[in-house]
């Protein structure tokens, strides 16, 4: 099976590389020299979207949201009846369907595709059970995946699509905290990253609620409660909730803009 990745920028290159371990992959980009390195992974690199779409059984769109319609117009005939997966934030299935006669999937992965730990949520109304299986096999090469109703796609975009950026801000803050209390840079970085990784794993593997994990760590009268007191005083939870809310709202705005 051949998969075309149209618009191999940041996420598209990660997608092409991950898929190349299991599938035949064609990747396109206007500045083709920037993705020549993908050839080392067996990816066929082209400039022409139409030829790539013609050669492929499944097409993944990784261009920016404002380019999706233009690209679909360009490859309309080549994708007829094929599965087309769009990773573009905010672009509804309705808009995709109005641009080509294909079987569309609207999906939202995240940059952790690079280490096969993406969380990919997707919505579709066009696929048979067999085709869903095929698409999930593709998403599983990126990490974990779930099917959701399309009404949740903007929310998931604001949460897990953008999530690695929020987590990186938190990570960076932890590292800075470590530096403030005198840790060497490399120790601060490793301690911060492994602590986040371990906590996420603990939550996923035990089904403990984060509040239970927090309480397990807080020794009465100990050190952690002093740190938690500062976090609560800084309204960190409100800040993070506002970040997810703002990004989800922006995803919704993108869909309104595209309809104009
Ligand atoms: N960066 C991320 O972590 C995530 C991005 N996305 C979505 O993926 C899409 C791409 O995002 P990024 O990779 O961050 O942006 P990007 O700007 O790095 O990648 C887009 C690529 O498309 C190329 N392109 C533009 N017009 C083209 C055309 N006509 N034909 C072929 N290639 C063309 C650009 O040259 C660029 O390399 C967006 O729709 C975004 O919503 C989704 C999930 C996560
Ligand atoms: O910032 C963005 O628009 C894209 C969508 C989700 C993550 N990055």
From TrEMBL:
Domain Pyrroline-5-carboxylate reductase dimerisation: start-end pairs: 150-252
Matching Gene3D superfamilies: NAD(P)-binding Rossmann-like Domain, ProC C-terminal domain-like
Family recorded in the similarity comment: Belongs to the pyrroline-5-carboxylate reductase family.
Keyword tags: Amino-acid biosynthesis, Cytoplasm, NADP, Oxidoreductase, Proline biosynthesis
Function: Catalyzes the reduction of 1-pyrroline-5-carboxylate (PCA) to L-proline.
UniProt xrefs under HAMAP family: P5C_reductase (MF_01925)
Lineage summary: Archaea, Methanobacteriati, Methanobacteriota, Thermococci, Thermococcales
Enzyme Commission number(s) of this protein: 1.5.1.2
The reaction(s) this protein catalyses: L-proline + NAD(+) = (S)-1-pyrroline-5-carboxylate + NADH + 2 H(+); L-proline + NADP(+) = (S)-1-pyrroline-5-carboxylate + NADPH + 2 H(+)
NCBIfam families: proC
Keyword Nuclease: no
Binding positions (NADPH): 49
Compartments reported by the entry: Cytoplasm
Alphabetical GO biological process terms: L-proline biosynthetic process
Entry protein name: Pyrroline-5-carboxylate reductase
InterPro entries per the UniProt record, alphabetical: 6-PGluconate_DH-like_C_sf, NAD(P)-bd_dom_sf, P5C_Rdtase_cat_N, P5CR_dimer, Pyrroline-COOH_reductase
GO cellular component terms, A-Z: cytoplasm
Pyrroline-5-carboxylate reductase catalytic N-terminal domain sequence ranges: 2-90
């Amino acid at each position: 099976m051949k998969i075309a990745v149209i618009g191999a920028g940041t996420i598209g290159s990660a997608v092409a590389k991950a898929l190349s371990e299991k599938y035949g992959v064609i990747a396109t980009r206007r500045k083709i020299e920037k993705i020549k390195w993908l050839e080392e992974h067996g990816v066929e690199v082209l400039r022409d979207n139409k030829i790539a779409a013609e050669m492929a059984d499944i097409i993944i769109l990784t261009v920016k949201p404002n380019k999706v319609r233009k690209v679909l117009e360009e490859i309309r005939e080549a994708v007829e009846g094929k599965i087309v997966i769009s990773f573009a934030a905010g672009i509804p299935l309705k808009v995709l369907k109005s641009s080509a006669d294909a079987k569309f999937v609207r999906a939202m992965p995240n940059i952790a595709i690079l280490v096969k730990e993406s969380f990919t949520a997707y919505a579709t109304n066009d696929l048979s059970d067999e085709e869903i299986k095929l698409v999930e096999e593709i998403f599983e090469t990126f990490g974990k995946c779930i099917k959701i109703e399309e009404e949740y796609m903007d929310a998931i975009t604001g949460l897990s699509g953008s999530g690695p950026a929020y987590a990186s801000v938190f990570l960076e803050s932890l590292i800075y905290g470590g530096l403030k209390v005198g840790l060497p840079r490399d120790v601060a970085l490793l301690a911060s990253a492994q602590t986040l990784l371990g906590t996420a794993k603990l939550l996923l593997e035990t089904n403990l609620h984060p509040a239970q994990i927090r309480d397990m760590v807080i020794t009465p009268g100990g050190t952690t409660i002093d740190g938690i007191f500062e976090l609560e005083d800084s309204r960190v939870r409100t800040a993070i909730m506002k970040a997810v809310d703002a990004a989800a709202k922006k995803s919704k705005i993108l869909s309104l803009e595209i309809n104009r």
